Amino acid sequence: MRLLSGLDERIGAQAYPATSEEVIAEYGDLELELPNGDERLGDVLGRLEAETFESAEDLRLAALSAVSNNAIGRKGYSDRDPSCIGEEGHEQLSF
Question: Is 67 or 23 the better-scoring residue by pLDDT?
Answer without folding.
Answer: 23
